[in-house]
Amino acid sequence: MVTPKPLVSAIICTHNRDRYLGLAIDSLLAQDFADFEIIIVDNASTDQTRSVVESRLKDERLRYIYESELGLSVARNTGAKLAYGEILAYLDDDAIASPHWLKTIYNAYRGNPRLAIAGGKVTLIWTDGITAPEWLSDGLAGNLGAYDLGDTVVKIDRPGLTPRGLNYSIRKSFLDQIGGFDPNLGRVGKNLLSNEELHMTNLALQTDWEVAYLPTAHVAHHVAPERVKRQWFLDRGWWQGISECYREQIAGEAGFGQFRRGGERLIRGLYKSIKLAADPAQRFENLVYSYGQIGYLIKALQGMVSLKRS
């Protein structure tokens, strides 16, 4: 007897996050959607990740794979290759999915054959007595994963509104069409490279696929204590700038225009940080933005030098 393939493959890519991983897995095991599998991609973890997964392997829906090559995009591609479902639903290892998360995602794809990417609302979980500091703006909260475009379905028409990677789904046939997640984008170990989802949305929109925000595909995201520090946000901004430069290089948008764009953004950010000096949240948000543009400009310069040498 041939076992039918699941409709959805839920994938958690994890690296040294055993503290939260069990909660993420349990939220998937509690879904009110029946036809799915769970794949845990252990991306070179050195903590108790394997033990956390093995304690739950009695559930036949759950599979574990160890991926030794570090990198979020690498891990996502590994999970996709192993997946049996046509719809791939990626949940972060420190997030908790609402009970109807998978059902909402599957129904969206079933109702729209041109839907390539979809993601839902993300709220933040503050633990360990931590609260949002006064210098944390709504914009910077997005760096912690917060994502809310309202309470109705939104058809995404520009990459800047793309769903967050911690609550992210993609049609496998589309992922295969574009050759998978680009390993030059996405977090690798402690570096904070990003923009892989933005790049994917850009590719989808360029090829007449659709991208959607699904408000009821809700996920809650833990705020780790080490992230509630100004330096973490500055580092995140720096890597955001580098990531944008990488994305432009991949998309064929690199060149001297990067110096104009980066310079204008740097000046705009510094101006706003001075103009809004009385508002600690807006002041810091614009400083982070400006700091990121310095990273962007340095990477653009390095790219130009490399191009000339070749």
Keywords:
310 residues, alpha/beta, Spore Coat Polysaccharide Biosynthesis Protein SpsA, Chain A, nine-stranded mixed β-sheet, 9 strands, globular
Task: Describe the protein in words.
- The mean pLDDT is 92.
- The protein folds into two domains: 8-227, Alpha-Beta Complex (Spore Coat Polysaccharide Biosynthesis Protein SpsA, Chain A), CATH 3.90.550.10; 230-309.
- With 310 residues, the chain is of the alpha/beta class.
- Helix 8 (230-250) runs parallel beside helix 10.
- The protein has ten helices and nine strands.
- The termini are far apart.
- Strands 1, 2, 3, 4, 5, 6, 7, 8 and 9 form a nine-stranded mixed β-sheet that branches.
- Helices cover 42% and strands 20% of the residues.
The general outline is globular
CATH level-two architecture of the largest domain: Alpha-Beta Complex
Largest sheet: 9 strands, mixed
CATH fold title of the largest domain: Spore Coat Polysaccharide Biosynthesis Protein SpsA, Chain A
User: In total, how many beta strands?
Assistant: 9
Low confidence ranges: none
Secondary-structure element order, as H and E? EHEHEHEEHEHEEHHEHHH
Instruction: Supply the helix-strand structural class.
Output: alpha/beta
Number of domains: 2
Please identify the top-level CATH class of the largest domain: Alpha Beta
End-to-end Cα distance, whole Å, is 57 Å
Q: What is the residue-averaged pLDDT? A: 92
Range of strand content: 15-25%
Cα-atom radius of gyration: 20 Å
CATH superfamily of the largest domain: Spore Coat Polysaccharide Biosynthesis Protein SpsA, Chain A
Range of helix content: 40-55%
- DSSP helical segment count: 10
